[in-house]
Amino acid sequence: MKSIRSYLLAMLMALPVTIFAQEIVIDPANIVLDVGAETKINAYVMKDGKKLDTPVRMFSRARKSLSVNSTNTVKAILPGTFDVIAIAPGAERKTFKVTVNFPPIAEIKLDDIPNKIYAGTPINLTYTVMDEAGLVRDNPDIAFSSQNEAIATVNSFGMVTTYKPGKTSIEVKSENVVNTIRINVVKNPIERIELSADGDQARTGDVFHFKAKALDAKGKEIADAPLYYSFNGISDNVSRNASGLIKQDGRFVADQPGMYTVTVSCGVASASKSVKISARDVARKIEVVGHGSVNNKHTSDLWVWEGVDGRDYAVTGTWGADGMAYFWDVTDPANITKIDSVQVDARTVNDVKISEDGTICVISREGASDRKNGLVIIDVKNPREAEIISRFDENMTGGVHNVFIADNHIYALSGGQKYYIINIDDPKNPYAVSKFELDTPGHSIHDVWVEDGIAYSSNWSDGIQLVDVGNGIAGGSVKNPTQFASYAYPNNANHASFPYRSKSTGKFYVIGGDEIFPYGLNTQPGGVNRAAGYLHVVDFTDLDNPEEIARFEVPNAGSHNYWIEDDILYVAFYNEGVRVVDLSGELMGDLRAQGREIAWIVPNDPNGYSANSPFTWGAQLYKGHIFYADFNSGLWSAKLEPEKPKETQIQSK
């Protein structure tokens, strides 16, 4: 037996172990560039020690930092180290790194230094470090020092603490660049502080507005007093922290029921006020009502609408398959019935939308055999006999990922970089009237949503873009789309944007959602996935100064598409299903921690394309039912129980 094992082992060792006989070679292996420089990368394929003529293509996902064109020329835009991927037929893909040097520091800018600082009060130095390429240096090495520490000291984070009246210099140094400022510390006139609030009782998630006045010995208000807000809380639940959030303009919100004390101070003077917080108590039951199964391919987005015959219908797309779109009768949400389908030349029908009058459907195309990855317009006056009436492929070779219909115009993404606005007054003869595209380095776009003549696009690292396409706020129109506001958040993952004007407060928000796959995406049957990312609530009430004010995050899951109606958010969180969230009142802080989650439901299907592997794509409220599409199991409907009357809620506490 031993000799047989030895023989088999020898045979196995003799077998070839190379999966790819061809190898991509990058020469030189280490590429280092300065900002603004570019170089053509020498890449070729080797086989059995011989150089082949096989073409090598390259790309980088860090497009805002490093661009790679069709000739394999790399241009350095921002400093850092970035991956470039090289691919060639028959060879294993090769990932290599390109390093872009940080330019030397050129200048340190210091902003908003007050003419006088009251003794005993601190200030934070606000500074910007610029390099020789004109770029802002993130997280630079900074050294601070004070000429006279008896008057003021400065710590390693730029916080200046003052002690007594006098003048001193503060030095700020980075690399070989130094900026020195003079500060003037004066006697502190503040004797006491008065603190008031708009109430002393509320629920978790309700925002208080505290107002403070610093007064001198004669009772005169010191308008320029540097006030500092903080809070301390005792939770009703002994196992949980009494967490919350306070802003330095006096806004405060609590996460947990309990007693909270807000304190405002200025030097040795301070004042406090306590508030009692009760539970938000908005939870409701939710139940599955119906299911339209799709278990032989992945499902993408959905749209539900009322047909011209008065019945209710839905359309769903498919992903990475055979270009199918399905039409459903959902008049009875408990009996979702597939009534027709349309197949187009595509692998993915990522997005589906219906016109306001319920007569026209538009679907997107990606992965077409002829590379004409445009959009398809379908007559759905009778969804049981859906009929393709036209296609639009012009300038769409890079693929249409998302679309939107508004006022007889289609907004269609093109190549992941821009969107075209296409007139469909005559849906049999669509034509483009304009396009919108950013001019930033490596710009990209994922989605566009149009409401009240404003297009809200999600532009990954460039963030949320607000464009006037007929509203009039910036003089724009469908023929002249005009950008007038924007907001980009640091993680560069803005995937979807939805406008929301609060009925209860009048505030205007745009909710931006991330899309992140930290573990990659398994698209095979049986594949299980987990996403990441969350919703960013941005207050656009002041269009010139948008502020990211709140978030909604589900642990170990990531956000996708969503819907807002009557101050309630319905959001798909991929592997954690649909979440229903209370958006009433002013928003601030961690919405889930505040108990604003009303309900959640996860679509598990043992017969799904991937069994019992929820990966919910999108949700839509329609005539009292929540419809949602799942990547692995198709179309679902659910029902949320009615809200309890307010008097019942009070009595139940």
From TrEMBL:
InterPro entries associated with the record: Big_2 (IPR003343), Invasin/intimin_cell_adhesion (IPR008964), WD40/YVTN_repeat-like_dom_sf (IPR015943)
Signal peptide range equals 1-21
Residues annotated as domain BIG2: 20-98, 111-184
The UniProt keyword set, sorted, is: Signal
User: Protein name, please?
Assistant: BIG2 domain-containing protein
Instruction: Name the species this protein comes from.
Output: Roseivirga misakiensis
